[in-house]
Amino acid sequence: MSTFNGLPAHILLNHFVVVLAPLTAILAILCALWPAARRRPIWLVLPLAVGTLVLIPLTTNSGGWLAARVGPSPALTTHERFGDTLIYIVAGLVATVTLLAAVHIRVHPGADLPHR
């Protein structure tokens, strides 16, 4: 995906990642430090983390498309490096949230599982 309604898709996708990654991290910290808050939000945090991880390659690919049209610059090179590094940070967040959910299931077996 290169454009969305005439705008570069990277701009829209970048905003999703910039909002979702810190929000997910804050919610994960809340769930880790406050067991009572872990009961329901952990089932929201896990898909948020995975969704953010899925969005990052889409964002970096659309950023590569945009960078080819903008031309090279030092600021753009720095921006690209941050984007390339972010996937590892969010993968760590996904692993942490998965571990936190596993601990929650182990401590409270059968309780508070998401309803189907």
Gyration radius, to the nearest Å?
17 Å
- By secondary-structure content and strand pairing, the structural class works out as mainly alpha
Looking across the biggest beta sheet, what order are the strands in?
1-2
N-to-C CA distance: 32 Å
Low-pLDDT ranges: none
N-to-C series of helices and strands? EEHHHH
- The helix count comes to 4
**Helix content estimate:** over 70%
Query: In this structure, how is the largest beta sheet organized?
Result: 2 strands, antiparallel
Q: What topology emerges from the helices and strands here?
A:
Layout: E1 3-4, E2 7-8, H1 9-33, H2 35-38, H3 42-70, H4 74-107
Antiparallel strand pairs: 1-2
Note down, in words, how this protein is organized.
By secondary structure, the chain is mainly α. The protein has 4 helices and 2 strands. It has helices at about 10-35, 35-40, 40-70, 75-105; strands at about 5, 5-10. It has a two-stranded antiparallel ribbon with strand order 1-2. Helix 1 (about 10-35) runs antiparallel to helix 3, helix 1 (about 10-35) runs parallel beside helix 4 (about 75-105) and helix 3 packs antiparallel against helix 4 (about 75-105).
